[in-house]
Amino acid sequence: MKKKLYLVTGNEHKYREFCAIVPFPIERLALDLPEIQSLDLEEVVRAKAAAAYTAVGKPVLVEDVSFEITAWHGLPGPFIKWFNQTLTPAGIARLMRSEADRSVAAREIIDLYDGTEHRLFYGEVTGRVAEEPRGESGFGFDTIFIPDGQERTYGEMSAEEKNTISHRAVALSKLKNYLKRVEEGEMR
Amino acid sequence: MKKKLYLVTGNEHKYREFCAIVPFPIERLALDLPEIQSLDLEEVVRAKAAAAYTAVGKPVLVEDVSFEITAWHGLPGPFIKWFNQTLTPAGIARLMRSEADRSVAAREIIDLYDGTEHRLFYGEVTGRVAEEPRGESGFGFDTIFIPDGQERTYGEMSAEEKNTISHRAVALSKLKNYLKRVEEGEMR
User: Fold this and answer.
1) Which among A102, B21, B81, B113 has most CB atoms closer than 10 A?
2) Pairing of β A5-8 and β A26-29
3) Which residues of A sit within 8 Å Cβ distance of B?
């Protein structure tokens, strides 16, 4: 029998993407834990996992995302949530108008933490910032992120399509493979 | 006899400004505590004070600053430190080139926390973002901040002059008055 996983996140959209990609039962614990200020995504995720474990008292899954604009020396990075809330994606695109270099990396780190060991799963997709928001799908920066090799933003893709290629999908497929190996080990 | 105050900060410049303004003995504890991600400066400062008290085990002084650009809906706010580190003040001024509204508020909150009660002291100075960095004094955003009623940036002022009018000076003068009242109370 598969053990249930607990994803601690204040973000319903992220929970849906986890469930769509990982074929293991996942329960959402809707705690909005404080995150630490850092430009190092891994540091943010490890601290969040430790806080989630303390709050929940059992092994937890947490994740966080970083949106690293080259022309802005890596900003907003893990602070993307606050840029989305204040400037909005349209405002980010507007501020980027004067930038010749539109390249950006979308990074995801998932941490499966049992109170002792952090198991980290990484996803990264490089791309560019759209000149204005396009599409209605997704959330966060989806409407202004065009992955390399594509002409459309995440926001112009179906959920299925985004969930095949996104930074979160890359990290989740690694988590999925890890969970499969654990399960096979337990079956033997 | 005046009790010693412990200022917990990773920032040597801030310590010097505290000592220059408050005529009470202040010792610096150079811990660089993690700060929480929030656009609410008071929330950041309260959490920092709680973490500092836990680390130090005696009453602590902490402070934090916010740089709230109107055209950016309050960003960078308490994230100013990371903007300074990555974009640099010159980069902030460059991104502001396309903004008609250059107004900004520099806010300071000091928290004197004894493990039970938070005593908060506020300072705010409104002004505008300079078109490019000017001056050599100060630190952080000083070279791009022009207080209302002035033509010069903090960076073009002497330390004495900045320490008479700055957001930090406003908060520190309230702390100073509070400490005087406590001392007078103890003398009676």
Assistant:
1) B113
2) parallel
3) 34-39, 47, 72-75, 77-79, 81-83, 85-87, 91, 94-95, 97-98
This complex has an ipTM of 0.88
Which residues, in sequence order, are CB contacts of A63 under 8 Å at separation 6+?
A7, A9, A14, A18, A45, A108, A109, A110, A111, A168, A171
Q: Are strands B26-29 and B5-8 parallel, antiparallel or unpaired?
A: parallel
Q: Judge: A82–B86 Cβ closer than 8 Å, yes or no.
A: no
d(CA B52, CA B7): 9
pLDDT one-digit tens code per residue, B103-152: 999 999 999 999 999 999 999 999 999 999 999 999 999 999 999 999 99
pLDDT in tens, A46-96: 999 999 999 999 999 999 999 999 999 999 999 999 999 999 999 999 999
Strand partners of residue B108: B65, B123
Q: Which CATH architecture has domain A5-183?
A: Alpha-Beta Complex (3.90)
Across chain B, which distance is largest between two alpha carbons, in Å? 59
Question: Is the pTM value of this prediction over 0.90?
Answer: yes
Cβ atoms < 10 Å from Cβ of B134: 17
What pLDDT sits at residue A187? 73
The alpha carbon of residue A35 is apart from the nearest alpha carbon of chain B, in Å, by 5
Q: What band does B1 get if pLDDT is binned at 50, 70 and 90? A: very low
Which residue of chain B is at minimal alpha-carbon distance from A86?
B73
Helix (H, G, I), strand (E, B) or coil at A58: coil
Yes or no: say if A166 and A145 are a contact pair by the CB < 8 Å rule. Answer: no
Chain B nearest CA to A110, separation (Å): 19
For residues A130, A133, A137 and A139, what is the CA-based torsion angle, rounded to 10 degrees?
Answer: 90
Domain ranges of chain A: 5-183
